[in-house]
Each structure stands twice: as structure tokens, then as C-alpha cells.
Amino acid sequence: MIFGNVNNEFFEQQTGILPAPLKSALCFLKETDLAAHEPGRFDIELGGVPMVLQVLDLTTAPRQTLRPEIHRKNIDVQFLAAGGPERAGYYNDDKTSVVDEDLLDTPRDILFYKDNQDAPEGTIEMVPGTYAVYFPWDVHIPAIQTGDVPAAIRKIVIKVPMDACLGAERG
């Protein structure tokens, strides 16, 4: 997992060491005002690589109501464009979690796990401008509320094909 903010003074160095498709996705998020974009799912191409852009209007929720998820074919680049704050949970997929719903062989490329109380789950705090990059081995739980009150968020997700990053040139 990679975590950062597009407004960080080290953004250029941070993205410069990444495979070109990931750098393209993060630069697109920095350079494009998606807070006002219509919600939905869109096919896009960045740096010659076909990707999926999701513009989602969500409300954060208590952690115990959310299912851990993972993807196998795509790297999830998640970006908080507006609203929040949002907390995101994450842990390494060590294959000890129990599958709740397997949609990996569908266009969604997603598997939901049942909550695993024994997972060494960490959290990050997301504010507008913050991004998290989840690889196929990173179980993640997005849209967790902070504090006692749910918050409206504008979440942007770019699905970057894992195959496009393997052997790709660096930024």
C-alpha cells in the first residue's frame, strides 16, 4: 500500500519512483477537478493504458458495518476529492480471512472477506487530496467514519491493471 497527498511538496519524487501507469493515475487525480464531475463509472486511457474511473458519492459508516475487500487484476487508486474526513483500514492478505462474497471473475474484480478480528488492521486518515494505492495483496476497508457522525465524501477510484505495471518503466 502507498499513502500520500497530491498537495505534498514531495509528490513529484513520490510518483517518480512508481511504474508509469500508477504515476499517470496519480497525476491525473492531482491535475483534474473531479469534485464537480458527474458520478458514475467511466472507461479512460492514461499514458496509453486503459483504466476505469469511478466517481462515487458515499457516506462514511462505522467500521463494523463494512466488509474488507481485495482485488486481484487491478490496483485500486483511491482518492478523497471532497468531504470527509474518512478513515481507511488495511492489512496484508495472508489468506487467513474467510471469503464472504467472491466477484473476482466479474468485471468488478472484487472479493469481500468476512470481518477478521485477528487481522492486524492499520488505519489511515484521509482528507481531501489524500490518496491510497492498494495492491492485490492489500486488503482494504474504505469509507470508515471518524468519530460519532457519518460524513459525506466524494471518492474517486482509478482501477489500474496490475499487468500494465509489471515490467513498466518508472515514472
UniProtKB/TrEMBL annotation:
Coiled coil: none annotated. It holds the Pfam family DUF386. InterPro entries: NanQ/TabA/YiaL, NanQ/TabA/YiaL_sf. It comes from the Bacteria. This is YhcH/YjgK/YiaL family protein. It comes from Enterocloster hominis (ex Hitch et al. 2024).
